[in-house]
Structure formats: C-alpha cells, structure tokens
UniProtKB/TrEMBL annotation:
Pfam families tied to this protein: Acyltransferase
Name this protein carries in UniProt: 1-acyl-sn-glycerol-3-phosphate acyltransferase
Single GO term (MF): 1-acylglycerol-3-phosphate O-acyltransferase activity
All residue ranges annotated as the Phospholipid/glycerol acyltransferase domain in the record: 42-155
Length: 222
C-alpha cells in the first residue's frame, strides 16, 4: 500500500512509521479499499472493539482519515494538542450533544475530507456489533456525503498484552460500498432508517458470530 494521496506531510510521516511497524505486530489483510471515494467528502463508519480500530482503519484507508477525540486529550499538554490538530484530530465533548464538534465535522466532509466515526459510541468488549447511534447519519445527511461502512476484525490481538512475535495474529480491515442517505436530517425516522442501513452494511462485513442484532436482517430473504 501507499500513503494516502491527500495526506498532509505529518500524516505521510506517521503512515510510513506505521508501515514499518505493522508487519512486525500482525499479518494485515485489507479488502475493499476501492469503495472509498478517491475524491470528495465521506464518512467512514467503523465498528469499535477493544483494539486500536482507529489505527488500522486510518492505516488501511486510501485517504487521510480525520477523527474526533475526547476533549480531555487536548487538555494534557499544548504540544500534544498541536500534534493532534496537525494530524487532523479535533475535540468533542463526550456525553453531550456537542454542536461545535458536529458542525466542524459537517464542514470537514463538505470540504472534501474523510471523517472516521464509530457509530456504536462505545467499545464492544466481546467484539459483537452493538446498536448504532444516529451521529454518523446526521453528519452525512447534513453534509450531503456518502457513508462508507468499514470493519476492523481482531485488532485487539495485535496489542502488546496479546502479541507474540513468533505467532503474529491476523487482522482484517474491510470496506464496503458507499451508502447515500436521503431525507431531512432533522427527522428522527430518517436518521434511524439510515443508521439501520449503515449498521446492517457493517454487519455484512463481519463474521456471523459478530453481527449482533443485525444478523437477523442479513439472514432474512430479500
């Protein structure tokens, strides 16, 4: 793989460091990168496990991925704040309807960037897909951009506590075809319907035992 074509200088540097380290920690399999639009804004909607999903998603993406991060990280040290900002990370106040962060996210994707989000909201300890929240749908509909479903599988096995140098674990990153929502982003029914479509698409990229409540919809006749 090559660094994202739209990456900043810092992102390219970080990507090359990751490119040297990833083969030491795991055997990474990436599928569906062609589904990420080469240009224009979009939201990557990814599952959220106990592993570094954000790292593998960003490394595997053909575009630079921007993330929201908890506001507390930006209060640790000014140098860290500048580094996060330079890497395309911006703060969000968790547990609140942070309108400033939401508006920044909308403007980001409207400007043609890629935003990475985790619609489950919290990490799944079991790796089973949890019920999705409507934030991804709201931002995508407000900005008028597609959502690309994505999953990272077994990222937790590459973490220091689990990693064994003589038996590198396998990690998968999968991207699915983009989904385009329609309707009023202020309508709860529209948000729920689009969220459901995104979550079902994500579930379809996961093994059956990790599809959670969305497995029934995937198994139903179409």
């Amino acid at each position: 793989m090559k660094p994202p074509h739209d990456a900043t200088r810092l992102w390219r540097t970080l990507w090359r460091v990751a490119d040297a380290l990833v083969p030491l920690y795991c055997r990474l399999h990436v599928a569906g990168r062609e589904h990420v639009p080469a240009t224009g804004g979009c939201v990557l909607a990814c599952n959220h496990t106990m592993g570094p999903d954000y790292f593998f998603l960003a490394y595997a993406s053909p575009r630079q991925v921007h993330y929201m991060a908890k506001a507390e990280l930006f209060q640790i040290h000014p140098l860290l704040s500048r580094l996060l900002d330079a890497a395309g990370v911006f703060p969000v106040r968790r547990g609140q309807r942070d309108q400033v962060a939401i508006q920044r996210a909308v403007e980001l994707v409207r400007s043609g960037r890629v935003l990475g989000m985790f619609p489950e909201g919290t990490r799944s300890r079991s790796g089973v897909l949890q019920r999705g929240r409507t934030g991804v749908a709201r931002i995508a509909l407000q900005a008028g951009v597609p959502v690309v479903p994505a999953v990272v599988i077994d990222a937790e096995k590459a973490m220091p506590g689990h990693w064994r140098p003589w038996r590198r674990p396998q990690v998968w990153v999968r991207f699915g075809p983009p989904l385009v929502g329609e309707g009023d982003p202020g309508d709860p029914a529209v948000l729920q319907a689009f969220t459901q479509a995104v979550m079902v698409a994500m579930a379809g990229l996961l093994p059956p035992e990790r599809q959670g409540e969305y497995a029934a919809q995937l198994a139903a006749p179409r």
